[in-house]
Amino acid sequence: MKKVVFSIGVFMILCSFNTDSSNQIPPGEKLVYAGSYNMSGLMTQLAQVTLSTEMVNTSNKSYLHLNCELATFAKWDKFFKIRDTYEAYVNPTTLKPSLYKRNIEEGGWTKKEKYVFKGNSVTSTSKRKNCPETTKTFTIGNSTQDVVSLMYRIRTLDFDKIKTVQSQSFVIVFDETQIPVTIKLLGTETIPAGNLGSKKCYKLSIGAKTDVLKGKDKNLIYLTADSKKIPVLMKFSIPVGTGQLALTSATGI
Amino acid sequence: MRKIVVIVAVVLTLISILFSILPLDTLALAPIGLALLFIFLAFKKSDVKQRKFTKLLFIITYICALYVLGKTYLIKDKVTVDTKFEQEKVDSKKEDLKDLEGLE
Question: From A71, which residue of chain B is nearest by alpha-carbon distance?
């Protein structure tokens, strides 16, 4: 189960080609997904994933708060309850992160992580259940971002300028490690998109240098082929099976 | 041979009932599928007079399959409102704002 949850998190890590600055992520957006896993040949709904955005203000600056929540459906709570949150506070224009947090609660196991970004330096604080808190400072590349902000950054890309099958490599920081990620545009497809109806979507393949994702072009994300670029479907393939996140509701877009 | 197949079919039927009751969702279809296979084999290896028991096993497993599929497709999934989790989010946000103030 942890692999499934981790892969959902990693799978939502996406990187950039060239960003389209005219395409900003709106505050107040809420996207709800049904997370399913293939059990006995049937896609079984396990959890609800909610992606939301809001603007927060400190005394000097404004930040876009990007929030990703994963919660198991009530029927699974007694069996294996999950309440995970992945958050990032980013610059509303550049989507460069200042603070990234990960709070994991999975079947009684907990882990809290906090990354503070200062230029090319990251100070991470990590606390696992029954373990002492650890702090680490490490250097990252100029383009390295956290999982959540990269997931949103992809939506600011101009796919009209990207050729099919063109891929590019990037780096994300996850579990205090930098992980190379590649993204490839495979074309367009029409996909059911919850309350948005059927939408023509960009089909992207995700590859990461990690054991979590499996297969070539089996980890896919579909973004609506319009200015909003809403992620409507994400399919993942991991060593223990396959699953997907399907959009059920999109509001505030 | 028939005895072994019948015993396996019975065991798988019992597992099917157990998996159907537990919140294992479509995972229960795995023992149900196997149970139906062994019930069919047991049915084929039985004389006409001996088929009553395998028919009973088939009906039980068939009901289990209907129950599991009914639960999967007819009952709407929802997330329980977790007040502790919601409060943690509020507290966490306050802490985040302090961290962000400290960064500036």
Answer: B79
Q: What is the pTM of this model?
A: 0.79
On whether residue A251 sits in a domain, the answer given is no
The C-alpha atoms of residue A80 and residue A99 are separated, in whole angstroms, by 29
User: Which residues on A lie below 8 Å from B80 (Cβ)?
Assistant: 74, 77
Q: Residues A107-123: pLDDT tens digits?
A: 888 999 999 988 888 89
Q: What is the β-pairing status of strands A177-192 and A145-146?
A: unpaired
Tell me how many domains chain A contains: 1
On whether any CB of chain A is under 8 Å from the CB of B64, the answer is: no
ipTM higher than the 0.85 cut: no
Domain containing A35: what range? 2-240
In the structure encoding, which two tokens stand for residue A1, read together? 């189960």
**Optimal mutation site among A38, A40, A81, A104, interface B, most CBs of chain B within 10 A:** A40
Burial class of residue A153 in the structure, from the number of CB atoms within 10 Å of its CB (0-12 exposed, 13-18 middle, 19+ buried): buried
- A109 touching chain B per CB within 8 A: no
**In this structure, is residue A252 part of a structural domain?**
no
